[in-house]
Amino acid sequence: MIVMTPSERKRLEACLREASEILYKNAKPESLETLEDIEIAVRKQVLENVSPEIALFLLKEKQRRDKEESVK
């Protein structure tokens, strides 16, 4: 298993805080009234906005790596 370095962890936390602020600004206030509402809103935001971007990035990285390996 690959372990994140402390500096990578700090950078990730900073990026997640920034992403959280953006997602919060784009959430309906009434959707954040209870812990259950917050959990549903977070899940919805992640599925709609975060996961597709991560998946696209990982796909492109895999394609790039596969291309590099095929050249060797």
Task: Give the topology.
Layout lengths: L5 H20 L9 H37 L1
Describe the structure.
The chain contains 2 helices and no strands. It has 72 residues and is mainly alpha-helical. The protein starts with 5 loop residues before the first helix and ends with a helix.
Largest sheet: none
β content, as a range? under 5%
User: Which sequence of SSEs, written as H and E, runs from N to C?
Assistant: HH
Overall shape: elongated
If helices are DSSP runs of H or I spanning 4 or more residues, what is the number of helices?
Answer: 2
Number of structurally distinct domains:
1
Oligomer: single chain
Low-confidence stretches: none
**Average pLDDT value?**
94
Q: Tell me the radius of gyration.
A: 17 Å
Number of strands: 0
Content-based structural category:
mainly alpha
Helix content: over 70%
Q: How widely separated are the two ends? A: 26 Å
Features:
72 residues; 79% helix; 0% strand; mainly alpha
Outline of this structure?
The protein is mostly helical and 72 residues long. It has helices at residues 6-25, 35-71.
